[in-house]
Specification:
128 residues, alpha+beta, 8 strands, eight-stranded mixed β-sheet
Length: 128
Amino acid sequence: MSTEKQEVGAVTWIDLTVSGAETVKNFYSEVTGWKVDKVSMGDYNDYNMLSPSSGKPIAGICNKLGANENLPSHWLIYITIENMNEKIARCKELGGQILVEPKDVGGYGKYCVIKDPAGAVCALFESN
């Protein structure tokens, strides 16, 4: 994820959450040309996928472990917001659910995963 301030309302990141991220990151590296950067999660690694031309992080590939263990395998978009607590309350008021409570993202900010009333899932991201 970029250390630059993100635009509120924009889709600013995307993660693929799967079992076997090690194999899947190799697949995407070969198919798209993305370069791989390990991200230690303590007992295992997730991966930032880097642009082959600029080297900038453009996506993540994550294991279905830890906070992600109950999520389905999917590409998850992150939408930048302001005031996480206010947006979580509004989500619940409008019939949404919080699937993953707010978590710190290595000094970049925090995120949570929500499900909208139609059942679609996305993440909300608030930068520092």
